[in-house]
Amino acid sequence: MNILIVYGTAEGQTQKIASFMANIFHENGHNVVTANATENPPTPEEFDAILIGSSIHLHKFKSSIKSYIKENLMGLNEKLTGFFSVSLAMASNNPEEHEAVKEITTSFLSKLNWKPKHIYHMAGALKFSKYDYLKKMTMRTIAKKERPGEEIDINLDYEYTDWKKVETQTLNFAESLQKLKLHEQT
Ligand SMILES: Cc1cc2nc3c(=O)[nH]c(=O)nc-3n(C[C@H](O)[C@H](O)[C@H](O)COP(=O)(O)O)c2cc1C
């Protein structure tokens, strides 16, 4: 089946997650197109299922993803769809931080009037090598709050994405698509 993954990213982690998901779909016999929301991504029409992912910066999803959803709302609401968020908050041990991500997501999706069948939340990364000095300082302060007790060295990058969990989430989406197609055939 044909799956489209559209992602919005600033430092590349959401793109990395999208590629990882695409590989899993490939291994399971699907055709996959991955597209950056800023690079004229395809519309949903010719796909059986669409996954849209965005990282969170300053409590907001990428504006390119917002625009893509707005422009393709009708097409999206007719298909099997999923949304995935990528954030530092999901790397926190504090359940309140996870709740905050869920609230940002619920509010974002309901304002757009898009109802994806599946919503997944994923921990992202801290890429100090890609930040300017001010961002390094800000992100170190935030990281200390999100991950108390952890030594944060601004000369290193940190990846918190739980790839096993992403694999499970991807397989869950593939299974949902399989079930839908079987249902349509009967
Ligand atoms: C300037 C900046 C602001 C951020 N703001 C948030 C935030 O509000 N909440 C959060 O959970 N993570 C925040 N993060 C962490 C990002 O979501 C995380 O680094 C993610 O992996 C970025 O994914 P990307 O590389 O695909 O953009 C922020 C990161 C940066 C650099």
Automatic annotation (TrEMBL):
Domain Flavodoxin: start-end pairs: 4-146
GO MF term list: FMN binding; menaquinone-dependent protoporphyrinogen oxidase activity
Pfam family, one: Flavodoxin_5
Biological process (GO), any one: heme biosynthetic process
InterPro entries from the UniProt entry: Flavodoxin_dom, Flavoprotein-like_sf, Protoporphyrinogen_IX_DH
Protein name in UniProt: Menaquinone-dependent protoporphyrinogen oxidase
Species whose genome carries this gene: Flagellimonas zhangzhouensis
